[in-house]
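Re: the request from the purification team.
They wanted to know what the chain is likely to look like in 3D before they choose a buffer screen. I agreed to run a prediction and write the result into the notebook, where they can find it.
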Amino acid sequence: MDKIYSAIDDYANSYLKLWRIVQEENAHFPTCSISSGSIAEFYAKKYLEEKYPNSHISFGASNEKAWDIKVITESEEVVLFQVKSTSDYSKSRKLSPLTKGFDQLIVITLACDFFPCQAFLFTDPKVLFKNGSMPSLTVPNPDNKKQPGSKVFKSAINIHDEFFGNLADAL
């Protein structure tokens, strides 16, 4: 039982450390509670900053449900990104339901160390809402053929190499 209490204390200390940093550097982290989703949004923003180097990139407000990150390009084009995530801790790999109002969707799987290990991009949200108004997707598991994920992932762009290349440049 002492191991459990000790692990909870370690978790609380790590959470508090990250929470304090986020309060000081809030332009680098979404303004919501700390979760695996907000960690994925942090990495997505770093990716987008490298992909759109001369653009204004910002997080949406914490009450914004349709999108997470706004990119305003040099040519003044506005692109709204929704970021969804799962982690290797999740047995189901199911994402929370989508809400209309974004232009592109980035789906990230975080490894057990909370670093991204999988990344997909959907450039056309229409394909996502074809079968329902608030679809919930399941992310493919490359390590388990019994978890192929939602069929719509066949239309996603696997941005693994680009994503990690951009992260390497950003971090």
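For the purification team: The helical segments are 2-24, 36-51, 160-170.
Please add any questions underneath this entry.
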